[in-house]
Write a structure and sequence with these properties.
- The chain starts with a helix and ends in a 6-residue tail after the last helix.
- About 40% of the residues lie in helices and about 25% in strands.
- The protein has helices spanning about 1-25, 65-70, 110-120, 125-140, 155-165, 185-200, 220-230, 245-255, 260-265, 285-290, 300-305, 315-320, 340-355, 360-370, 370-375, 410-415, 445-465, and strands spanning about 25-40, 45-55, 60-65, 70-80, 85, 90-95, 145-150, 165-175, 205-210, 235-240, 275, 295-300, 320-325, 395, 420-425, 430-435, 435-440.
- The radius of gyration is 24 Å and the shape is globular.
- It has 17 helices and 17 strands.
- The chain is of the alpha/beta class and about 475 residues long.
- It has a domain at about 85-375: TIM Barrel.
- Helix 4 (about 125-140) runs parallel beside helix 5.
- The structure holds zinc ion.
- Zinc ion (ZN) binds near residues 239 and 276.
Length: about 475
């Protein structure tokens, strides 16, 4: 009798609570449940059976499964134990060059002997659009939600980024010789200024300057860009301390300064700068980098493929330099997803340091997320799964044969995963790839357009005697 009464009382109590509980539930747009959440916050908090809640374009809650009782979402993604982590950030690429991928991979002095002549013949608005569409799809399918680009006709790249729904910093190239969209550096600067004016208020696109390198621009041009970038508060992306040719040319110009010292001496090393590669640098250069608060893009696969050397990226990371992973363009690193860099970043730094414990997986993942966000000065918006940040989130399949089992998610991501393991990609709160289907663009059409363009590339390559296959 006593038991019955207790049961009845508790049943009544829960009935009474029901309407109250449901009305008290907070509304959300998207909730990801049953997830192994890698937040990549300051403490590197992991929720083994976690939940991420999104409203509009922001993360409004991250935590354990109890969050499911507090929120009522329009859409629920039950990911069945998969890894949920911040979207990857590719800090350096030339997305449109996908249409040139696998051409003349091992030609010596390739940039000057092959790439610049090839670009002179083939870079156009169409080429930039077709290549960017293809590269965007590759990146989204590889878990990249934000990228930093340096190329020509960046207004065309911007249209593709807007359409697919990614986030990007797009840098219009400035270089001293005639190129497809400018006859000289001054015209390049004008082009960049128009582009910056057009896109400065876009919610997902940050327009920027991209002087190609110190040795392919004059001191005056580099100084002018630096001054304009500070006035307009836009980033400047540049290839820096990348090659011995550059080191020699800059030493000639500056009475023996290194590229980093030279940039500092002309007042062009500042918080708006993102230097790609940074291979040929010493401790003094690193001190200048730290003092300037500039960002660094570390592109391991491109750097070792070109045999240019290994950047002291681990030292920079350990000394709190703003440094993140990049892929470089698809003619250099050949793939655009930073997941495919992870393995090489970990292993080459171990080899160089002759230390198995050097560059552990958690540092690699940090450099692909928060480190990359810091390199681009976007750490207050992206790079980790924390309340208030923009909802750029990826889901990694942990049931694929190459991922089973996952005792340590960081190790699994760095040593086992590949870009094909990305299951869902969410940018700005919107799912843009679900179960590997692109939701905002037509992947087949984009691939076909790229294949059609390869006919033009083949004809040009075969016609040209200077091009080596
Ligand atoms: Zn590059």
């Amino acid at each position: 009798m006593k038991l019955k009464r207790t049961l009845l009382a508790s049943a009544m109590a829960s009935l009474a609570l029901l309407p109250f509980a449901s009305s008290a539930m907070e509304k959300a747009d998207l909730m990801i449940t049953d997830a192994m959440v890698l937040t990549m916050n300051q403490d590197k908090t992991v929720y083994e059976s976690g939940t991420v809640v999104v409203k509009d374009n922001k993360i409004i809650a991250v935590g354990d499964a109890s969050l499911e009782k507090r929120y009522k979402a329009e859409q629920v993604l039950d990911v069945d134990g998969d890894i949920v982590m911040p979207g990857l950030i590719n800090t350096h690429t030339h997305v449109s060059m996908t249409v040139f991928r696998s051409l003349a991979d091992d030609v010596p002095d390739r940039l000057h002997r092959y790439i610049f002549p090839l670009e002179k013949k083939l870079v156009s608005r169409d080429m930039v659009r077709i290549g960017a569409n293809l590269g965007n799809v590759e990146m989204v399918k590889g878990g990249v939600t934000t990228y930093a680009d340096m190329y020509y006709f960046e207004d065309e790249v911007a249209k593709t980024v807007d359409k697919i729904g990614m986030r990007a910093i797009l840098g219009e190239t400035v270089i001293k010789f005639p190129v497809a969209d400018a006859a000289n550096a001054e015209e390049g600067i004008k082009y960049a200024l128009n582009f910056i004016e057009e896109y400065k208020d876009h919610p997902r696109i940050t327009p920027a300057f991209a002087p190609h390198a110190p040795y392919t621009n004059t001191t005056e041009v580099l100084q002018k860009i630096s001054k304009l970038s500070l006035e307009l508060d836009v980033p400047v992306m540049i290839h820096l301390a990348e090659s011995h040719r550059e080191v020699e040319k800059i030493a000639e110009r500056s009475e023996g300064l290194s590229p980093v010292q030279y940039m500092d001496s002309i007042g062009a090393l500042n918080k708006n700068l993102v230097g790609a590669h940074m291979i040929l640098i010493d401790d003094h250069d690193i001190e200048l980098v730290k003092k300037s608060d500039m960002g660094v893009a570390h592109n391991m696969s491109a750097n070792i493929k070109s045999a240019k050397g290994v950047s002291p990226a681990l030292q920079m990371y350990d000394e709190n330099v703003r440094i993140g992973l990049g892929t470089d363009g698809p003619m250099s690193g050949n793939t655009l997803s930073t997941i495919d860099e992870f393995n090489q970043v970990a292993k080459v730094h171990k080899l160089v340091n002759k230390d198995r414990a050097a560059m552990p997986p958690i540092k690699v993942i940090d450099m692909a997320t928060m480190g990359a966000a810091k390199a681009l000065h976007m750490e207050d918006k992206i790079g980790s799964l924390e309340v208030g940040k923009l909802a750029d989130i990826i889901v990694i399949d942990t049931k694929a044969p190459n991922m089973v089992p996952v005792y340590n998610p960081y190790s699994a991501l760095v040593y086992s995963a590949n870009s094909g393991n990305v299951r869902h990609t969410i940018v700005d709160g919107k799912i843009i790839m679900q179960d590997r289907d692109m939701l905002t663009v037509n992947e087949d059409k984009i691939r076909q357009e790229a294949l059609d363009f390869t006919k033009v590339v083949r004809e040009t390559v075969i016609e040209s005697g200077e091009v080596v296959q």
